[in-house]
Amino acid sequence: MYLASIENRLSVFVHGHPVDVNRASDGRFPADIAEVYEVWDEFTKWAASQGAGAPGQLAPASLGAPSPRPSQVFAISLNYRDHAAEASLQIPDFPSVFTKFPSCIIGPSTPVEIARPMTDWELELVVVIGRPTHLVSESAGWDHVAGLTIGQDISDRELQLAGASYPQFSLGKSFPGYGPTGPWLVTPDEFEDRDDIGLTCTIDGEIVQDFRTTNLIFSVPRLVSLLSSVVELRPGDLIFTGTSSGVGFARTPRRFLKPGQEIVSEVEGIGTLRTRMVAGASQG
């Protein structure tokens, strides 16, 4: 099943065409996509009875974030060995976790203002939680995932790494719009192999990242299990699962995003997230 926010209304797709869930269910389910994760099991049973499946073509301007108001956003650094290598850092024994503050989360149609000159890209597979999750085993991890979407962990490297002893990962990655997600959520059963998904990021037509989730250090179910060993994950929460090598900061010479550029993020089984970069107020 594919789930989308179309013109700010929760929608599924039947025979490729969008169906407004609130109207089709006679008010049984909410119009706001952010609220459906609280009734996820009941909703998915209803959606299956309607024949919900894959979408046809939609204009990006009509689409919003698949989970626009998560209570918590977890982000994992150094979750691919090649990314750790390009950053000259050791492989962690436990996921290295920071947060992107929820106010940075946007959908696929909103341009992103470049807040500072050292703004970088990081393509990531993003998990959306579908059930209250605490102290779950790795074998049960996928059972708590509502679905997957595409995300860009856009990062201001200057602020992120400010101060050798006290870096500011969370602040450096949470400027307005620095968490684009979309274009929709895809439930795990739609993937041929949910543990082997390809991701590709291009900028101005150049491939800058190309990797597969089989190379994750901590897999999706492992992340769900380990995070839930400490905190309770809530319906609608996001997990940015980490990025691979190819980011601008690690290149020689270093490269950063510029106004007018478009990041094209593609993930097998999900589709394409296009993120247009524009000048910020200080650059205008």
Automatic annotation (TrEMBL):
<dbReference type="InterPro" id="IPR036663">
    <property type="entry name" value="Fumarylacetoacetase_C_sf"/>
</dbReference>
<dbReference type="InterPro" id="IPR011234">
    <property type="entry name" value="Fumarylacetoacetase-like_C"/>
</dbReference>
<feature type="domain" description="Fumarylacetoacetase-like C-terminal">
    <location>
        <begin position="73"/>
        <end position="277"/>
    </location>
</feature>
<dbReference type="InterPro" id="IPR051121">
    <property type="entry name" value="FAH"/>
</dbReference>
<keyword id="KW-0479">Metal-binding</keyword>
<comment type="similarity">
    <text>Belongs to the FAH family.</text>
</comment>
<dbReference type="Pfam" id="PF01557">
    <property type="entry name" value="FAA_hydrolase"/>
</dbReference>
<dbReference type="GO" id="GO:0016787">
    <property type="term" value="F:hydrolase activity"/>
</dbReference>
<keyword id="KW-0378">Hydrolase</keyword>
<protein>
    <submittedName>
        <fullName>Fumarylacetoacetate hydrolase family protein</fullName>
    </submittedName>
</protein>
